[in-house]
Amino acid sequence: xxTLDAINxxxxxxxxxxxxxxxxxxxxxxxxxxDLMHKHGLSVADIESFVGKKRGRKxxxxxxxxxxxxxxxxxxxxxxxYADPKTGATWTGRGRAPLWIxxxxxxxxxxxxxxxAAAAPKVAAKTTGAKRGPKPGxxxxxxxxxxxxxTGAKRGxxxxxxxxxxxxxxxAPRKPRAVAVEAAAAPAAAA
Length: 191
Hints:
The chain is mainly α and 191 residues long. Among the domains are: 4-53; 82-123, no CATH class. Helix content is 57%, strand content 2%. A hairpin with a 6-residue loop joins strand 1 (82-83) and strand 2 (90-91). The chain is elongated and about 110 Å long.
């Protein structure tokens, strides 16, 4: 029966044989290289300069002047905004919400202390803005829907073609802004 020690001895002998073979092959290769260098009159410096030209990137204009570019940051990291107190897992508030915060109604419980101070000015800026009027595209949308009903009549719809066109609604002309302000101030002064 073959033992573990016998196998280890065979492995050691084979490794020694492999090393001697590799040394012999390397020495044969080195002698060939030395003979070729002597035949052509080359030195190690000649070989290094030749290999250096072929390999790698060519230096740019900035590198030739001695000015190197600073490495850019490839990834912009965002500080985490929420943290799970049980596991310590964090979330930046961007992308899909993790399971531990996905179904929570009030996420303020999970806010990290430093993240709340940074978010507070943004929220305050949004709430302090003046009340705005209707969206600019609102009037255009109404005009488009009116134009769509007119084009329906042109396409040959029977109901639209036989029915009379609805009367155009008119409204009172607008008062100038200064007059409206004076009219609002007058009842307050009378009281």
